[in-house]
Specification:
The chain has 299 residues and is of the alpha/beta class. It has 2 domains: 124 residues, Hypothetical PUA domain-like, domain 1 (Ribosomal Protein L25, Chain P); 159 residues, 3-Layer(aba) Sandwich (Alpha/beta knot). Helix content is 28%, strand content 26%. The protein has 7 helices and 13 strands. The strands form 2 sheets. Strands 7, 8, 9, 10, 11, 12 and 13 form a 7-stranded parallel β-sheet that branches. It has a 6-stranded mixed β-sheet with strand order 1-2-4-5-6-3. Strand 4 and strand 5 form a beta hairpin. The chain starts with 6 loop residues before the first strand and ends with a helix.
Length: 299
């Protein structure tokens, strides 16, 4: 993984050259005496992980996966400057290398770099398929606004765990106050956190991150089949029937006040607990969303 982007071992698309890492003398000897068993690969366009019995590099390629903030289609595309710099100058890819791209529409594209210059990178996209990593459970996370890395962690993990919408919530005990200019910068930063998480976890749709919103306004606007607010004295998540959509409210550092919990209940939220221990604001979405996916979503 580099700069939040995962490099996955995938089956090479047809017609794309495979670049093999340089083998050591020991690997060459081992490869001669113990060839890897690589038969049985899936003959489709989806990522395929390879295992080998040999220390010699297997005949697969290392595919880097990138989000492109522009509509993609089959054919040639010139990549935006930021991605071009990262691919050509940071990762040092060369023409002929294969890449996997997605544009947030739910589609994935496999292709080959056809030009890698100092300022220009062009790719030819040859194969397209639907992403397979989205959850059937629609999750809207209301996450209490917290400081720096804690908020980043919550957004990153909520993205990995399948949240489709994330709303930073301003409540009584919230210690963070953002002004207009700073809000814009934080919004751009949070979106990049979510994009990097999608690149890493295989999601094809980047979650929508709303601007920070006052708790009462969010409670009035939010609609879902099941609406939950975390509270230490409540029924467990498993006591609820399976919903098609879920709104999940988590307080900031210091938690929600009793009055705020009652306010949430007054707008249709049910109190729920994740266990006997008090979780940090950045830990709660990990535990809560993982459990929700286990009960009603991915599994």
């Amino acid at each position: 993984m580099a700069n939040g982007r995962i490099v996955a071992t995938l089956e090479a698309p047809s017609g794309v050259a495979v670049h093999q890492p340089r083998a050591t003398h020991a690997n060459r000897r081992a490869a001669c005496s113990n060839a890897a068993v690589i038969d049985g690969l899936q003959k489709n366009h989806h990522p395929v992980m390879l295992a080998t019995l040999s220390p010699y590099p297997p005949p697969t390629m290392r595919l880097s996966r990138f989000f492109i903030d522009a509509p993609l289609s089959l054919g040639q595309h010139e990549l935006p400057e930021a991605q071009a710099h990262y691919i050509g100058r940071v990762l040092r890819h060369a023409a002929g290398d294969a890449v996997q791209l997605f544009d947030g529409s739910g589609q994935e594209f496999l292709g080959e770099l056809v030009e890698v210059g100092k300022k220009t990178v062009r790719v030819e996209l040859r194969e397209q398929f639907a992403g397979q990593a989205e959850s059937p459970l629609h999750i809207h996370l209301g996450q209490g606004l917290s400081r720096g890395e804690r908020m980043d962690w919550a957004i990153q993990k909520a993205t990995e765990l399948g949240a489709q919408v994330i709303s930073p919530i301003i409540s009584t005990r919230c210690e963070v106050r953002l002004k207009d200019e700073r809000t814009d910068k934080r919004m751009a930063h949070w979106r990049q956190v979510a994009i990097s998480a999608c690149e890493q976890c295989g999601r094809s749709v980047v979650p929508l991150i709303h601007p920070p919103i006052v708790l009462n306004d969010w409670l009035q606007q939010t609609q879902a089949d099941l609406k939950l607010v975390l509270h230490p004295v409540a029924e467990p998540l498993s006591s609820h029937a399976k919903p098609a959509s879920l709104a999940f409210l988590i307080g900031p550092e210091g938690g929600l006040t009793d009055a705020e919990v009652e306010q949430a209940k007054g707008t249709g939220f049910h109190a729920a607990r994740l266990g006997p221990r008090v979780l940090r604001t950045e830990t709660a979405p990990v535990a809560g969303l993982a459990l929700a996916q286990h009960l009603w979503g991915d599994f």
